[in-house]
Each structure stands twice: as C-alpha cells, then as structure tokens.
Amino acid sequence: MKSLKFYGAVGGGIALLGCWPLAVGQIAHTAFDDLVTSIDNSNVSIELIDYQRGYLSSEATTKVVVEAELAKQQLQDLGLPTEFLLTHDIVHGLISVTSDSTIQNWDSDALVIESKTLLNGATDIHLAYSNAFSVMLEDSAVLTIPSWQVKGSVEPNQTIQYEIASPSIRVQDDFGAELEFADIEVTADGVFDNQLWLGNQKFTIGSVTFNEPESGFNAQVSGINYDFSTSFDDETNTYGTAYKLDVEQLKNIDIEANNIVVAMNAGGFDSNAVNRLAELSSGNALTDQQTAEMFDTLVLLLANGLSLEQEQLSFELGGGSVSSTWQLNWPEQASSTDIYEMLIAVDGGFSAYVTKPLVESFPMLEQVIDELMIMEIMTDDGQGYQLQGVIKDGNVMFENGQQIPLLMLAMAVLSNA
C-alpha cells in the first residue's frame, strides 16, 4: 500500500510537472492581457491582435497606436509612424515568462526588446537601440540620437518604474548652429490615475551647449537636475505637486551664474476639477463650449482653495548672490463666483535678499535698489539688501507699513516682463 501511495505521489508529481508549462503559458497569457490593459490609455492604445499559446512557448502580436493628437502630429512631422505592430516570441520558464519582441518593418538588428514576467504578474522590460537615429526637422535642421535605452517594470498593483538614458541628443542646422544635450537620464516611479501621473520623476542632463558659428555666440548649461513629484490626498480629495531644479552653472560670453536652485510646491487642487481639465486639454482643438467649460472649471479650482509656494530661488552671479521665497494661499470660496474677488482673497508673504557685490556689478539693478531704499521698502544690513512683506486683503504690505494694491503690483510686474 505504501509503495502504491509512493508511486501515486511520484506519478502525480510527474503529471503536475508535465502540466506546469501549460499552466505557466495560461498565466503568461493572462499577464500579457493585464499588461496591455495597464498601458492602454488616452495617449497610447495597445491591442492584442493574436496570441498563439503553445506548450513551452507562445507567439503574440500586438498593435500600438499613438492616440494623443499633439504627439501624432509631431511624429508625422518627423516622418515617423504613429502605429506599428509588435511580434513577441514568448518562452514559458519555471517561475517566469520571457519575451523577445521585434517591431515589424524596423531595424531589428539594432533594436532589442526584452521582457520578463513573473507568475505574480510583475513585468520587467528592456528596450535598447544601438544605431544612430536621425530625423529631419523644420528649416532643414537635423535631430540625431546616437543610441538610447529604456528599462522599466510594471508591478501587479500597476505601479510603473522606468529609466530612459541616452549619451546625447543633437540638433544642427544648415548654417552650422548646434544645440546638444549630453548624458541624459530620466527615472520615474509611480502610477497613472485618471490620465495624471502620481509619483516621482527625475531628469538629469550633464550639459546643454549651444554654438552659432555665424554670430560667434555660444552658451553652456551644466549639471542639470530636475525632480518632480505629484501626490493625492485621500482625506481632502486633492492633488499636490512639488518640483526642484538644480543647475551647477550657466555660462556664455557675457555672464556666468552658478548654483542655481528653484524649488516650488503647490497643494489643495480639487481632483474633480483637475481631472476635467486634463480631459479637456488632452483632445483636439477646443470648441467654444469646451473653452467656456475650461474657464468655469478653473474658477471652480480656485473657489475650492489652493496654495502655491516658492520654497527657494537662489543663484550666484557677479560675485554675489540672490535668494527669495514667497507663499500664496487662496481659502475656500465656494459661495463666490466673482473671479476678481476670488483672486484678491489671497494671503501670503514674501522675502528677498540681494548681496552688495551683485548689486554693484549691475548699475541698473543698483538704481532700482536705491529707489526702494529711499521709499524705505528695502533695508540695508551692511552685507546686502532685504525685502520683506505680507499679502492680505488684496494688498501688499511692507515692513515699514506701506501698502500697494495687489492688482496694481501684478500689472506693473507683468508690464515690465
């Protein structure tokens, strides 16, 4: 009896082992469907055209179509297709499924598309293109990318992680003018929710150079880092966002600025209004009715309250430095429909500091500071000049007690800009 049970168990194990590739194939098919569904959105649609499941391997064909009108037009202007077919050779492993894919009618030797899907549905993807890629832009300018690669993963909870890298992107025209981005890398971790990205993104660029031989003008920006994040607050049903830009140096023949930092955040954006704005702006040209609806939605966004903050703006220039911060907060004004009243209901504060070496390097700036000192709006601490104030009841109030209507100040700033 024991022998019978033993051989029965062994036979059952062998039968299970024999059926396992078929089970993995079924899991792979399901995971493939889920992956296609998770990527399909208003910008890009993916359709599973065919899936031939085998014992140890399968074959599939998918159709990818760029749906966003702006992206489609840009691709068409570059002479690139807006839809194409992917052929997938799928192998059923013990705990995962691997796939090698090729784009039909594409340079398959230079293009590598690999993916690996675990049995829980988690998928890793690697794309790489090793040949130089060039397209003709307007005015006979040529854009060239020597190579690029994309690494990404999709988790069962639809969280997406990806990394895009390229050694350079160069644009050159017939007159020899050249713009080049070097050492480019983009990383991200998040999810798509109602056409909006929730999560973190980071862009790094080693340098950006521009040369124009005809005029002799050249400029370079180096050490660029841009961090961007968006989040959703379940309790208030609002979105928030934050970004920070760091630049080591900006330099041309006339000027050199170092350690440039811009950091801002915003919060309290009503999710219903934001999602509707995303829907309206993702399609074709707006009709008159949609334009009116977009304005009403913007009013609703402001009526529900929001906040903006510049946490830091600083840079070094002319032997000195500048730094500033400001905050603006709009309270909830659901009962109001007057856009002017809603705008001036803001409160907040601001602060700016300019060191004397920088002011002395720019006579025009020095003249403005002198006028503000005479008005007692700015103060001198011996090392530099300080400007501080608060915003309340539609007025900008400085430390010395002077007040300026916010609308008048905003119009003056815009006219000068």
TrEMBL record:
PROSITE patterns: PROKAR_LIPOPROTEIN (PS51257)
Family matches, as InterPro entries: DUF945
Domain of life: Bacteria
Name of the featured protein: DUF945 family protein
